[in-house]
Design a protein that fits this description.
The structure holds 2 protein chains of 2 kinds. Chain A is mainly beta. Chain A is built from 1 helix and 5 strands; from the N terminus they run E-E-H-E-E-E. Helices cover 10% and strands 38% of the residues of chain A. Chain A is globular. The radius of gyration of chain B is 19 Å and the shape is globular. Classes of the chains: A mainly beta, B alpha/beta.
Chain lengths: 80, 271
């Protein structure tokens, strides 16, 4: 199990529709934020991806997750 | 200011406040504009009575500072129309409004001053007219045009604060960049459904890396999301102008009225 990490994924706003708010999942070491986003099945065609955070700090999709990370995924918001 | 005018304003003010009737009397007696009388009164530390209920938040000196502040509101749809009204009521002295569009039926759910009678009319002209009725001391410039930051930024000469009330991430991104280059204060706000996001004096490349649209295309914006967001942005304008409180200069505020979530994310400056 040493090659696995446990993280918490939090989805926000429209990403929660037909999906979860927060969930713990295990992934192989080296998993990126991009891989996790794909795994959640959120519909980024309908709701484009906005800001991503790991442990309260802004990250990009290439971020490699670490044991215990909290990954927060927000839809893009651009209306006025 | 001439001595006679000063004498009359002093005589007609009560406890440091100038009533509408006294304001009008001074306009008539000295053939001044409403705006000039307000400027004269504020110079003397006399505050128009309309602002009395703001006094615990905004002192006479702050009221004068607001009067001499010029704010440009880029976009006069959902956010812009409400921000324009709030800044007018608080006494920001000069507003420049930009929007190319006309009111349409589908704006009635949220856009300030839109009603059955002005569908088809240019938004900025309707808003300007309405604001002048609320506060005739405010100088309002209305531009019926699509604001293109790269070419139109010179129109913002003399502006102290630029408010992002646009609905296009691409234009938001470019406007933030131009404000940064020109060292003009910039108040960002954006909404989609019941979600919103806000930051002040920051560029937006981390929010809109590709300039493409967001969730707002699919979900639209209900009235209370719009007025909530407009309030956050208006408060930011007043705070950074007066140097009071804590603005969103180091943070991104993300809000969700559906779940009552309000999240502050620290912004790491781009170096």
């Amino acid at each position: 199990m040493d090659d696995m990490i446990n993280i918490t994924i939090k989805l926000f706003a429209h990403f929660r529709v037909n999906n979860f708010k927060a969930e713990k999942r295990s992934y192989a070491k080296g998993t990126t934020a991009r891989d996790v986003i794909a795994d959640t099945g959120i519909d980024i065609k309908q709701f484009p991806l906005g800001i991503l955070m790991a442990n309260g700090r802004h990250i990009n999709e290439d971020y490699i997750l670490k044991e215990g990370d909290i990954l927060a995924i927000f839809p893009k918001v651009g209306g006025g | 200011m001439d001595k006679e005018k000063e004498k009359l304003l002093k005589k007609n003010s009560i406890d440091g406040f100038l009533s509408l009737a006294a304001h009008r009397a001074a306009v008539k007696a000295f053939a001044s504009t409403f705006r000039d009388v307000e400027r004269n009164a504020l110079d003397m530390g006399i505050v128009p009575l309309r602002y009395k209920r703001n006094q615990s938040t905004i002192s006479a000196a702050s009221q004068k500072k607001l009067f001499h502040t010029h704010v440009a509101i880029i976009g006069c749809g959902g956010l812009g129309g409400h921000i324009a009204e709030m800044l007018t009521r608080i006494g920001v002295g000069k507003l420049s409004l930009f929007d190319f569009d006309i009111f349409e039926e589908h704006n009635l759910n949220r856009q300030n001053f839109s009603n059955y009678e002005n569908i088809g009319k240019e938004k900025v002209m309707v808003v300007k007219e309405a604001l002048e009725k609320i506060n005739p001391s405010i100088e309002i410039a209305a531009f019926v045009k699509r604001f293109l930051p790269e070419q139109d930024f010179p129109l913002l000469a003399g502006v102290d604060v630029v408010v992002d009330a646009l609905d296009s991430p691409r234009t938001k991104l470019d406007l933030a960049q131009k404000c940064k280059e020109n060292e003009v204060s910039f108040v960002h706000g954006a909404i989609a459904g019941m979600s919103g996001q806000f930051t002040t004096n920051n560029t937006l490349e981390y929010l809109y890396p590709d300039g493409g649209s967001g969730a707002e295309i699919s979900v639209g914006n209900p009235s209370f999301s719009v007025t909530f967001a407009a309030s956050v942005q208006s408060a930011e304008v007043v705070k950074i102008t007066l140097g009071i409180g804590k603005s969103l200069e180091d943070e991104l505020l993300i809000t969700d009225l559906l779940e009552n979530e309000f999240i502050l994310i620290p912004i790491v400056p781009v170096r």
